[in-house]
Write a structure and sequence with these properties.
Layout lengths: L16 H12 L2 H18 L4 E6 H5 L8 E7 L5 E3 L8 E4 L7 E6 L9 H10 L8 E4 L2 E4 L5 E8 L2 H10 L6 H10 L5 E3 L12 E5 L1 H10 L2 H17 L12 H14 L10 H18 L16 H19 L3 H7 L5 H5 L5 H12 L10 H16 L4 H29 L2 H14 L7 H10 L3 H12 L13 H10 L4 H8 L4 E5 L10 H5 L5 E5 H15 L3 H17 L6 H15 L1
Parallel strand pairs: 2-8, 3-4
Antiparallel strand pairs: 1-2, 4-5, 5-10, 6-7, 7-8, 8-9, 9-10, 11-12
Helix pairs in contact: 1-12, 2-14, 2-16, 8-9, 8-10, 9-10, 10-11, 15-16, 16-17, 17-18, 18-19, 18-23, 19-23, 23-24, 23-25, 24-25
Length: 603
């Protein structure tokens, strides 16, 4: 690392803080970008949350970052009466938590109304597993989380909420210099911000009774209150750790985002608020990295909320501490290395192209990128209908145009899922009403983006409506963007549209938001039978192909069934061309391999 960042390569005359700050805005996002992401997250959780629980989008994406290497993390918390009272009995709580005999940061749970042993984490996780967390997704258990086995999946962690009365007691005694406004709002509104997570300490819990006291939601509220320089400093630390620590297999996954957030909170307590301005971003960053280095050298990283809890207590951290220390020193001792790190960070070319465009175009692009997080994790018909109704109620009283656009897009996305579910019901039962419902739902859903029609076209193909399928795909094909696509927005068309006259985010989706892949789930029936074996035997839960190639594949099948040889030859040529021209960078070899298989079928 030291040789790669030698100061001899850099000339401070050509690298200045202003240029680095501008680059950082492209990497982390502007204040408006972060605001849009958080609006999407909030409405996404609102729309998909079940009546019986509260769900939180946690982790980096929940904080407002959009790093490609970050997972989607979801915490599911049961609503009352399954709440916890800390240390004392509470009428509204099912459990009492005690920290006696526990490692710092952990507690044991006992039922409030019964004399029994401590509630085991294992029992809790087994109950959740038997409840059938999500039967339509492949899943594995990873510690306290359920992980889905497909690209852009999510980690779901179940937790028990701590009653606001108990968390307010803690908040009143906790002294801070920078988030007192957050503290006051939480206490005044009785917001649930603490949970017990079924994760035990590294050592000293053979019986599985100790639960982690999680401040995840409280921390997220604090991060959301940071000014943009503090937020960017946090994000830049994440980037540097990703390229300095995680890139090395020997020390990968030793220093986590949680450690960085803890360091940031400690530093903000010590540094005057007026110091956190864009001109000082690298001084702020250097102070934070120096504090992290100090913690690493001491082998002690005090938890922000419970200082006696050492976050560096894991054996692997102790084993690799010297190597981590050397890597951090390489970064800090190299003159201009931090600035150079930012200058060299690759940014999608579209972001640079948009710098001179209107605010509307830039906002739409940010909105489309933020919506890539919205995959959804509920799949049953009842859950979808519940979400549809919630969105319709929210739209009635909503006046903010950005939030309206997000809600409408979520509504269309859910309608597509309903269409797939109803078609599955039709295949299994033969009831024509299910087929009609599926068709209507997918007719709505085709407006979600400029190739959302592909699912409706697939339904028509499966039901023998070949001419309808051809007509729909051919019409949509005329609006497809030309050239190589690296992102989700057809920038040329959206720029032309907004230059001609007024435009809004809702109207831009239909023709300018590109869905680059078609995802065929192996538990569904909505895919051409020619792909049945490939879909059902996919190594992941979804068979994913490049959308333009799939469109030509569908057209070929229709023309072949109708015995139109000339059209088959022409479409096959276009299919071959689409495969060769597209770089297939989104899902790597998986997307490329699956797309190539549809060519092999046609041969």
């Amino acid at each position: 690392m030291g040789k790669g960042l030698s100061s001899e390569r850099y000339n401070p005359l050509y690298i200045n803080p202003k240029k680095c700050w501008d680059q950082l805005q492209l990497v982390i996002g502007t204040e408006e970008d972060v605001h849009i992401r958080r609006e999407v997250n909030a409405l996404y959780v609102y729309a998909f949350c079940l009546p019986s629980c509260r769900e939180y989008l946690s982790g980096s994406k929940g904080e407002g970052f959009l790093f490609p290497w970050s997972d989607l993390d979801i915490m599911v918390s049961k609503l009352p009466p399954e709440e916890i009272s800390m240390e004392s009995f509470h009428n509204d709580c099912a459990y009492i938590a005690t920290t006696n005999g526990c490692k710092p940061g952990f507690c044991k749970l006992i039922q409030s109304y019964a004399k029994c042993d401590y509630y085991s984490r294992v029992e809790f996780l087994q109950l959740k597993q038997h409840a059938g967390f999500n039967v339509n997704f492949d899943q594995t258990i990873r510690g306290p989380c359920y992980s889905t086995n497909f690209p852009d999946g999510f980690d779901c962690c179940y937790a028990l909420p701590v009653h606001p009365d108990s968390s307010n007691v803690f908040l009143r005694t906790f002294k801070t210099k920078f988030w007192n406004g957050v503290k006051l709002e939480i206490m005044n509104k009785n917001i649930t911000v603490m949970h017990c997570v079924p994760k035990g300490p590294e050592k000293g819990d053979d019986d599985g009774h100790q639960w982690l006291i999680s401040f995840s939601i409280l921390e997220q509220n604090i991060v959301h209150s940071l000014n943009h320089v503090q937020f960017c400093c946090y994000g830049l630390m994440k980037v540097i750790i990703h390229v300095v620590i995680d890139i090395c297999a020997e020390i990968h996954d030793t220093v986590s985002s949680y450690h960085l957030k803890t360091v940031l909170f400690h530093v903000i307590e010590d540094i005057h608020p007026e110091f956190w301005i864009s001109q000082n971003i690298f001084y702020c960053l250097r102070i934070c990295l120096t504090r992290l280095l100090l913690f690493v050298m001491r082998g002690y990283c005090p938890s922000y909320f419970i200082p006696e809890n050492n976050l560096f207590s894991k054996p692997r951290m102790a084993e690799k501490r010297r190597i981590i220390q050397e890597n951090l020193l390489d970064v800090l001792q190299c003159e201009n290395a931090l600035m150079y790190c930012i200058i060299c960070i690759q940014v999608p070319s579209e972001k640079n192209e948009l710098q001179n465009e209107s605010r509307k175009v830039r906002t739409f692009y940010s909105l489309c990128l933020a919506l890539r997080v919205v995959n959804g994790h509920q799949t049953t018909y009842r859950e979808c209908i519940n979400s549809v109704l919630k969105i319709m109620v929210a739209l009635q009283g909503e006046e903010d145009q950005l939030r309206i656009a997000i809600l409408k897009y979520l509504w269309l996305l859910i309608m597509r899922r309903i269409g797939v579910i109803m078609y599955d019901k039709f295949v299994l039962t033969g009831f024509e009403s299910y087929l009609l419902s599926a068709e209507v739902a997918l007719m709505f859903a085709q407006h979600a983006n400029n190739f959302g029609s592909i699912y409706l076209a697939t339904l028509w193909y499966c039901e023998g409506g070949y001419k309808q399928c051809i007509k729909l795909v051919s019409k949509t094909k005329k609006n497809l963007p030309t050239g190589l696509l690296k992102e989700t927005v057809y920038l040329k068309s959206v720029v032309n549209k907004c230059r001609k006259g007024p435009c809004n985010n809702t109207s831009l989706f239909e023709n300018h938001y590109v869905n680059l892949t078609v995802e065929l789930h192996r538990t569904s029936h909505l895919f051409p039978k020619d792909l049945k074996e490939l879909v059902e035997k996919a190594t992941i839960s979804e068979f994913i192909v490049y959308y333009k190639s799939y469109a030509y594949f569908l057209l070929f099948l229709c023309y072949y069934t109708l015995h139109k040889r000339t059209e088959c030859i022409n479409v096959y040529s276009e299919l071959l061309k689409s495969y060769r021209e597209y770089p297939f960078r989104l899902a790597g070899n998986l997307l490329q391999r699956n797309t190539k298989k549809i060519l092999q079928i046609l041969r």
